[in-house]
Amino acid sequence: MQIRKLLYPFSLLYAGITSVRNKCFDAGILRSKGYSLPIISIGNITVGGTGKTPLTEYLIRILISDHKLTLLSRGYKRKTKGALLANKSSNAETIGDEPFQIKSKFPSINVAVAEKRVEGMNLILKNLQTDVVLMDDAYQHRYVKPGLSLLVIDYNRPLWKDCPFPAGDLRETRNGQKRADIIVVNKCPENFSDKDKAYWLKKLKASDDQQVFFTSISYGLPKAVDKNNKESFQGGMPVVALAGIARPEGFIDHLKNNYKVHDQLIFPDHHHFSSDDVDIITRAISDEKIRSLITTEKDAVRFHKLPDLVKGKAWYIPIELRILFSEQEKFENIIRNYVRDHSNYS
């Protein structure tokens, strides 16, 4: 905490730089390129772990039956460069763990990755037929102009209690919230009440043009990482928990509340497992009392290079977004109506 206080002057400098950049876009000095097809941006201001991927998957489930979808992502921590399209040989290393996770769950959608989103859009329009583009983690990537912008905020890290880098975790000042069409407050606790909702709405100070929704994360039952594993998960036995995500606390708490966690292995976000990591994991599960290793869905897509001994004991917990206060229909209608009203064939 003391170190962050010492870094605060640098946060003021960073805030100034990002604010000037945003004003340049707002004034047209830096130009955002618009497109004729519906583009939905999903992003955050707080770095890492806000729950963008579950929200992106929720949008896919809303639209996939009626539209040809393309996901455009940076492909963070992939080992390739430039703009490229996912194909049958793609994996977490070539397109990034989150895009690969989504492509694996929804094989019918297109996936493109590009550090520069304009290059990604050019690649998509030249090579694919698509009705809708979902831009993941694109809130600060303003060279492509989205038609609908969704901002995800972590309930556990309110914007008004934080500040920009490096003293805080914000990618820009909280004024950036004003660019969002929809604000999603994610990871709300199970006991989130009407009173809590009113408090958040007061603190957020959303404009009349902005819609605010509150969501929580729903954890599913363990699924085998190895698709050839036809066994059922054996509960009641000690397990090893493994997480390589930005904010593993919710996942670990869920495991502790529902399983007998013998040991925890925590790695950095988007971590690619080294040989030393494999040795650590193998030792952790070699105890005869350990029947299973439980990991996150995002980590599971990076297990393809791990030994069969590990994959054979590995399970992941699928997660889904749940919209609170019976506002699912309202949220979904906003998404569907936007796509309908901005489609070339509408």
Query: How far is the N terminus from the C terminus?
Result: 53 Å
Strand content: 15-25%
Structural class: alpha/beta
Q: How many beta strands in the DSSP annotation?
A: 14
Tell me about the biggest sheet? Answer: 9 strands, mixed
Which of globular, elongated, flat, extended, rod-shaped describes the shape? globular
What is the CATH topology descriptor of the largest domain?
Rossmann fold
Average pLDDT for all residues: 95
Major β-sheet strand ordering:
3-4-2-5-1-6-7-8-14
Radius of gyration: 21 Å
Our count of domains comes out at 2
CATH-derived architecture of the largest domain: 3-Layer(aba) Sandwich
Low-pLDDT residue intervals, each spanning 5 or more residues: none
CATH level 1 class label of the largest domain: Alpha Beta
Give the proportion of residues in helices.
25-40%
Order of helices and strands: HEHEEHHEHEEEHEEEHEHEHHEEH
Number of H/I helices: 11
